[in-house]
Amino acid sequence: MLHSTKRALLRPLHLSAPLDEDVAAWQQKLSNVSAALSAASASLVAQRRDWARLFTTADTFASDLHTLYPNDDDVRALGKRSRTATAGLLAGLAAVDGPAVDGAGGGGGGGPGATGPAPPPPTVAPAAPSAAGMRAASAAEAAAAAHRTVKAYLQEIDTLTREYPKVAAARRDVEAYERKVEALLGKRRVDDAKVARNEDKKDVCEQTYVTLKEALLERMQGTYAKHPAVFKAAFAGFFCSWEECKERSEAALGDLGVVARSLARRGGGA
Asked: Measuring CA to CA, how many Å separate 42 from each of 19, 143, 203?
């Protein structure tokens, strides 16, 4: 009878399942946000790569026109003018992004009949920045800052994930002492002192677990609360980057478009 009473009094209170479900629920929310923002970040990088490829294609066309056209006339002059513009376009993008990736960098000269690398574009004195050029520079700064915000937030979530195993380990320590106390109480002759010592150890582990878990939940909730602003940053980063590249194209190639439309109206200038 005495042993039965002791078992009833000393039986550990099991931690309720919803506590761990709280951590799992916030973990899932953060995981969903991280996946979405990681995809957005990858799209931003892909957009830059695709613009670089487009600009490189323009540079290849201009270089081929300059170097492979057989006559020294106004067509070759158009090639020379175009190559100067496209090389500047690529240089402007590289100044922001560094070397182009996935084969997007480097000028042309690879058309039929090419005998080697294209010559460097003619050296010209730098012109004063145009309105489009200044808009491109402003958009580039905004895009880079927004993308840094996204990447910093993803790193913050990643840092939190390294805390999950610590909380799980603390929970396992509590459960281990719960099982040990239950086993001690289940013996025919109960060693009250040994039970008390393990109860004390369980209480310490439980306090550690609760402290770690509460701190983690607070951080998870605080981090999750930031996500709307970070999604706005992703939106800003993508479309500021788009605006930058569009404005760079306009600043470098806008005059060539005017010439091209004029030639098209005259049937190619024939």
From this structure: 35, 14, 47
